[in-house]
Specification:
The chain has 320 residues and is of the alpha/beta class. 38% of the residues lie in helices and 16% in strands. It is built from 14 helices and ten strands. Strands 3-2-1-9-10 form a five-stranded mixed beta sheet, with helices on one face. Strand 4 and strand 5 form a beta hairpin. The longest helix has 20 residues. The chain is globular. The mean pLDDT is 94. Bound molecules: fe (ii) ion.
């Protein structure tokens, strides 16, 4: 079994391409605007609209895997409200069309946080929108969650924003919050059942875009009981292996209040990051990685479906 994992392609369609400067326009304070620009240019990604070629290159380099998991963040989310924004939805549709043209039924897709929306880093603009959750199925044909058995392994894909909804509570529209919570009450027991029904002889491989969700999964008794059977949890979201290493180093740090919802959400996630440990977290980098390091690429896995021997994971670098 040869599995390909791609994550965070952040593809930009024409509607999003026309929004150059969208991030700084969403930050009212000049000092915060300068800080955000320095972070982008100096480390993260100078031009988020300039990397559509990377996904095509990864597809060309991986013509014939047995199975493919796309681990979320298909658009740039330049309106910060996920798929409920037509331009973002168009980007994500085009991105998934490329993946489906290349791999057809072999593709399994997981939603990222940017499919659903979240506050911009400094401006506090946007947030999750329930229409984005609806469009996940109606426009992108991505199920809320899924599982598939490959021999002795059970692969499970989960929606990290819905699982980690308590971390996004402050970003929800008040009149939409009940619908979000109802959806979470519906989906979480289904995921717990999928983990529990794997039985004692299967190894579990989880695909979860944002590791912020993991402490909330650990709190579910049926899932906690199966953690000794965990083979790996493939996350995206952090884009760069260097950021993933830093997150591990900072695990347990105190949560930071008073610097806005994004800083509070990220620092809270790091505060609880020791819970990632039993999930055996492994990052699938974004195609670009960080601008400063150019450490992006993709992930592959190989295993014998008839055996429970450990999976061989390999990270591949995409030079640019
Ligand atoms: Fe991302």
């Amino acid at each position: 079994m040869r599995l390909l994992v791609v994550s965070d392609p952040h593809w930009a369609g024409p509607g999003e391409q026309a929004r150059r400067g969208y991030e700084s326009r969403a930050i009212p304070h000049p000092l915060q605007r300068a800080l955000a620009a320095a972070w982008r240019r100096g480390f993260w990604l100078a031009d988020p609209l300039a990397h559509n070629d990377k996904l095509d290159r990864i597809l060309a380099l991986n013509p014939d895997p047995d199975l493919v998991v796309a681990n979320g963040d298909y658009s740039v989310d330049s309106a910060f409200v996920g798929l409920s924004d037509d331009a973002c939805c168009d980007s994500a549709e085009r991105c998934l069309a490329s993946l489906r043209a290349a791999y057809g039924e072999r593709l399994l897709a997981v939603p990222g946080d940017h499919e659903l929306g979240k506050h911009s880093l400094f401006g506090g603009v946007g947030g999750p929108r329930f229409e984005s959750w609806r469009r996940l199925g109606s426009r992108l044909s991505i199920p809320a969650w899924w599982w598939r058995d490959i021999g002795r392994h059970r692969l499970i894909g989960v929606p990290s924003t819905l699982v980690g909804l308590p971390a996004f509570e402050a970003e929800l529209l008040p009149d939409e919050a009940p619908a979000w919570w109802a959806e979470r009450r519906r989906v979480l027991p289904e995921i717990a059942e999928a983990v529990d029904s794997a039985g004692p002889d299967r190894r579990i491989v989880l695909f979860c875009h944002d590791p912020t969700a993991l402490p909330f999964l650990e709190a579910i008794p049926e899932i906690r009981a199966r953690l000794p059977q965990w083979e790996a949890t493939i996350i995206g979201h952090l884009h760069s292996p260097a950021i993933a290493r830093l997150a591990r180093t900072l695990a347990g740090m105190p949560a930071i209040q008073g610097l806005g919802s994004s800083v509070r959400r990220y620092s809270n996630a790091l505060h609880r990051a020791r819970a990632w440990e039993p999930f055996r977290v492994r990052l699938c980098p974004s195609p670009t990685g960080a601008q400063a390091l150019k450490d992006g690429g993709w992930l592959t896995a190989e295993w014998d479906p008839e055996s429970t021997a450990p999976i061989t994971w390999r990270r591949h670098r995409l030079p640019w």
